[in-house]
Design a protein that fits this description.
By secondary structure, the protein is mainly α. The chain has five helices and no strands.
Length: 115
């Protein structure tokens, strides 16, 4: 059986890991073992934060809507309760965009919900 040299494969693997850690500080960008660990942790954080981002945006929409609802004399929670009872299907993202960019339309939606 012929001999197989594996240098090319291992160098390629090492190079790919070090490419991913470009810009990292200290040994994490130059040393293979530290770089491998850094890439692994970065991947876990990226995965978790993609899910956490959804909650962060929902909070942003709630704050925007509450800020727009207070001058109209109603709180966010009271508005959402009444909207659910009316079976209103506009989601928080759309409502917050309306509150931010088209306050007159948002005011009409609120009046419809309350009335």
């Amino acid at each position: 059986m012929t001999r197989i040299k594996r240098g090319v494969t291992s160098i390629k693997r090492r190079r790919n890991v070090l490419k991913k850690t470009k810009g990292y500080r200290f040994g994490r960008s130059t040393k293979e073992r530290k770089a491998k660990e850094a890439v692994l942790h970065a991947g876990m954080h990226a995965f978790n934060d993609r899910r956490e981002k959804k909650g962060v945006f929902r909070g942003l929409w709630q704050v925007r809507m509450n800020a727009a609802l207070r001058p109209l004399g109603i709180s966010y929670s009271a508005f959402m309760g009444k909207a659910k009872k009316k079976n209103m299907d506009i989601n928080r993202k759309v409502l917050s965009e309306l509150a931010l960019k088209k306050p007159d339309v948002f005011k009409r939606v609120v009046e419809y919900t309350l009335g």
